Give the backbone structure.
Amino acid sequence: MDEVFPLVDESGNVTGSALRSECHNGSKLLHPVIHLHIYNKAGELLLQKRSMDKDIQPGKWDTSVGGHVDFGENIETALRREAQEELGINGFTPLFLRSYIFESEIEKEMVYSYKTICEGPFEFDPNEIDAIRFWNLEEIRKHLNTSVFTPNFEDEFVHLNSI
């Protein structure tokens, strides 16, 4: 079943809707997504390894939680839904970091980025995510520009950590 995503303008205002397949076919229809960066108390960042079955960036390490906003859903509801679906977490306190537009060769997203501190426990669907683990920030820096991470994660990490 093809999901329906809201389309937004560059200010984040909903202007219409489109199917997931339309948003990911090179049309560059601007649609909103959420990212949640989960840190532990030691300051390490939880990353997820995307399933090899994903249509975009399979097998690469990515943001702790990332997902699309469904049509008719607000940003915070999408953030909490995706955190529950991807890692089985609830009851966290998200801190808004920034919103920005990310464009790849096949899509264009309005990203709403948040962070939180959470030690787990985490549960994930092995059909969606191959692995999760905490990385220290220096370890992430050493692996930048080596095709280990998704381009979107790298761009966001560099911006948020002022490398």
Summary: The chain has a mean pLDDT of 94. The chain has one domain: 4-161. The helical segments are 20-23, 75-87, 137-143, 151-161.
